[in-house]
Amino acid sequence: MKKSLMALAIVSTSLNATALVLNKPDSDFIDSASTVGVTLKNWDSGKSAKLTMKHAYRFTHHMEMVKGEYIHNVGNASGFDLDSVKGVDVDGLLPMSVILRDRLNQESLVILKNGQLVDEYYWSGMHKDQTHLQMSVTKSFTSMTLATLAMEGKVDMNAAITDYLPELKSSPSYSKATVQQVADMRSGVLIQATNGKSWDERMTQVQEWNGTNNYPNLKSVLDFGKLVDVRTDIKSGEAYDYQCINTEMLGMVITRVTGQSLAKVMEERIWKKVGFENNAYLQTNSKGEAVASGGLNATTRDVALMMDVLINGGKNRKGEQVIPTEFVQNLLDGNEEVRAAWAQGKESKLAPDAWYKDQIRTFKIDGHKFLAFVGIHGQVVIGEPSTGIVIAMNGAQYQMESTRTVVMTFQHVIPTLLFAVEG
Fold first, then answer.
1. Domain boundaries along the sequence of the chain
2. Closest Cα partner for 372 from 345, 341, 407, 332?
3. Which residues pair with 9 in a beta bridge?
4. Which of 121, 148, 349, 373 has the most neighbouring CB atoms within 10 Å?
5. What is the largest CA-CA distance in the chain?
6. Residue 179 Cα distances to 7, 236, 255, 360, 372, angstroms
7. ∠ at Cα 127 (125, 129), nearest 5°?
8. pLDDT tens-digit series, residues 219-260
9. Strand-pair partners of 387
10. With contact defined as beta carbons under 8 Å apart, do 328 and 310 qualify?
């Protein structure tokens, strides 16, 4: 297949920054996919997930984030017999491989303990160097990038978000919200879903997620941010309400403060420092605006290493501070605001003893306390600081946010695996 990617240089407003390359969608790949019914319009559907999650960045514009010189060696697998562990489904106890691969449509599983490989499993064409669309796991990476800027005093999390994005002063919701409230999904925005969808398509349209933007008046995701409505049943900051546009606004704050693309800032502050084994791709629109809430394509090993940094106090295994210690501790501690806000959200029915802070969940389930990055098709990365265990899974589930798969994953699979690995 001839190479069809064409590169366009992004001009950064920072004179000291080397711009990343903006890659166009892979037209040859898209043409080939269309022969089996996968198109720009449906590539992200649950029915196509097993075919597309491993190749998502090829459908859109994207930037490649390059790994650093330091690569953490996870070592050889110490060994973990996945089938000796049993999981529960409606038809009773089953080997965990069956639960993960066949019932939860997982395509990979990586288990680390104290930064070393316990074992890894791959299905459905996955392997250790294969990237996978992380969907909302991306949100956590965007937030951690922002945290490094806050640590340096370049962003005040308690300031109004309009201090950084004055365009939002006309927004009935964002005009009242702080950066921290946006990061905690407590901004008070009200999203009116497009008919037949669970989201407002104007956001994905301006991101060119499914091809050409059919709303030419929306030049930037900021233009959509100005249009979102406000909840009238609560005050800003009171309730946890998970909305992707919040993360997109955080991405715009990062871009505004640094004068660089989100991909470039994430590359410099995270991708080159953690010890990742592979490059990654961040999906964008044709202007280079990143999909900050769901566009990261990375390997399962690398997202596991990111969680390992968090549960290691923000340090990579070389001992370098990558993520601020205070940020990590605040995630683990929570506060009254995020606990009260969580209680008003739908996820509290699944896990009442939990909270959402800075685009990362903290759960207390069945005697385990762990951090979690979560994606809508079953992408799950958890880390338990007390044991040093990280479990990373990349799913391609047909139904987004299925109650059955979410309950199975967090109430049964994760506690069972944590117990088994801890031994």
1. 149-251
2. 332
3. 21
4. 373
5. 61
6. 34, 12, 14, 15, 21
7. 130
8. 999 999 999 999 999 998 999 999 999 999 999 999 999 999
9. none
10. yes
Dist CA 31 CA 4 (whole Å): 11
Query: Residue type for 206, please?
Result: V
How far CA 155 is from CA of 20, 186, 380, in Å, comes to 23, 18, 29
Question: Taking Cα atoms as reference points, which of 209, 242, 211, 206 lies closest to residue 222?
Answer: 206
Burial grade of 21 (CB within 10 A; 0-12, 13-18, 19 or more): middle
User: Which residues have CB under 8 Å from 229's CB, separation 6+?
Assistant: 172, 173, 189, 190, 191, 192
Sign of torsion over alpha carbons 260, 319, 147, 345? positive
CA distance 377 to 374: 9
Tokens of 193: 């879903």
Alpha-carbon 202 to chain mean position: 21
**pTM summary value:** 0.94
Euclidean distance between CA atoms 395 and 420, whole angstroms: 21
- In this predicted model, what pLDDT tens digit does every residue of 287-304 receive, in sequence order? 999 999 999 999 999 999
